[in-house]
Amino acid sequence: MKCVICKHGETAPGKATVTLERGGTTLVVKGVPAQVCSTCGEQYVDEGAAGRVLNMVREAAASGVQVEVREYVAIEAEEAGVTSGK
Ligand SMILES: [Zn+2]
């Protein structure tokens, strides 16, 4: 897709590092699937991945984590099972 930030670049599949804060918790997630602009480097995190990253920060906040760095792990097969379940 065309980048909406610089309006010139085209995005290509890549990996992003996402930092999220929730309450007193800061979570850094590396290797998140994203579309990355070839011109300005803007990162558009995939919709499904963004949902999973949000779940990760919720879990981290619930367990009282202050700062944590995690690697994003793709679980496409598991995701399919989870979404089709109850
Ligand atoms: Zn751009």
Overview of this structure, please?
The chain has a single domain (11-79), classed as Ubiquitin-like (UB roll), CATH 3.10.20. The protein is 29% helix and 38% strand. With 86 residues, the chain is an alpha+beta fold. It is elongated and about 40 Å long. The chain has helices at 47-62, 76-84, and strands spanning 11-22, 25-37, 43-45, 67-71. It has two helices and four strands; from the N terminus they run βββαβα. The chain starts with 10 loop residues before the first strand and ends with a helix. Strands 1, 2, 3 and 4 form a four-stranded mixed β-sheet that branches. Zinc ion binds at residues 3, 5-6, 9, 37, 39-40, 42. Zinc ion (ZN) binds next to loops.
Radius of gyration: 15 Å
What proportion strand? 35-45%
Average pLDDT rating: 89
Distance linking N and C termini? 34 Å
Counted up, domains total 1
Task: Describe the secondary-structure layout.
Elements: E1 11-22, E2 25-37, E3 43-45, H1 47-62, E4 67-71, H2 76-84
Parallel strand pairs: 2-4
Antiparallel strand pairs: 1-2, 2-3
The structure holds zinc ion.
Descriptive keywords:
elongated, Ubiquitin-like (UB roll), 29% helix, alpha+beta, binds zinc ion, 86 residues, 4-stranded mixed sheet
Write a brief caption for the model:
By secondary structure, the protein is an alpha+beta fold.
